[in-house]
């Protein structure tokens, strides 16, 4: 007798959610996409896979639960809807894979974590780097003490974002939306992955991330059409006293900037970039190593792991406890003032596909900061 395949409901099939539709309908993921929740009444007409497979589309999650259920809910909705949706799914006995960011307060995260324990259903978060097998292998080596204690970390990473990105919804680049906090920024959302991965790598167990104690932040806004900051230079202090510097930005000339990171330990220095192998290291004795022998996994490894966890009962490694430090860090950062970038440094750029703002030589300035373990003002760089 064959085992019943897990049933998946996808909440939010536009934008990034389209990748989940593609993954669940174009390849065998070991599960069935049996329902979609989306506010677009014409979704089935616009997405051929939904129409061809006659997948029912519900306007809300409540409407779905009134008629059906699932084994796994994949939430690709705006952050200010996550808490209510996660709690509803767990209370209906449905496991959850929620896209990042999970939420914006530790209180909300704790409520979701408690609901997961109470219902016996898992909640995992879509920080895809946590699901990479080379990241997990590196973390195991760190926990085993192969490199000694971490001494210093500096990372920079950015995506260029223009008018199309900010016009795609009513919360992009906003601090609040309809009276609810969203804190949308490169650090909170688009470029959050690599900071969260760093805290995950330094966590005391395979399921936890390192706590953040404080931050020195320089926040800038170059794009005059948005409310929140789009440039951040951040120096965090972990609970272990480790300085962790992170630089991220949207108003850059290059489409992709980084990630480039240097992780210094007592007995090794590890670098990572977009190039393969992602992680390369040199031990104190000069011997080199990398993680090229570890296959990173599939592009949608997070979805595959969540589906497998439905049957195994063993939750994926990226649960609430792995996201708490980033949630805390987002709020710490947001409490700092935002300085407009000097107008003479900001260049409007028009292309055939988009319009965006870039700050002259911003990438070079922030790389200089990373190499010197400094914030811009400490090096005499006056952006505002």
TrEMBL record:
It comes from the Bacteria. It holds the Pfam family GFO_IDH_MocA. GO terms for molecular function: nucleotide binding. Transmembrane segments: none annotated. InterPro entries: Gfo/Idh/MocA-like_OxRdtase_N, Gfo/Idh/MocA_Oxidoreductase, NAD(P)-bd_dom_sf. Residues 7-127 form the Gfo/Idh/MocA-like oxidoreductase N-terminal domain. This is Gfo/Idh/MocA family oxidoreductase. It comes from Ruthenibacterium lactatiformans.
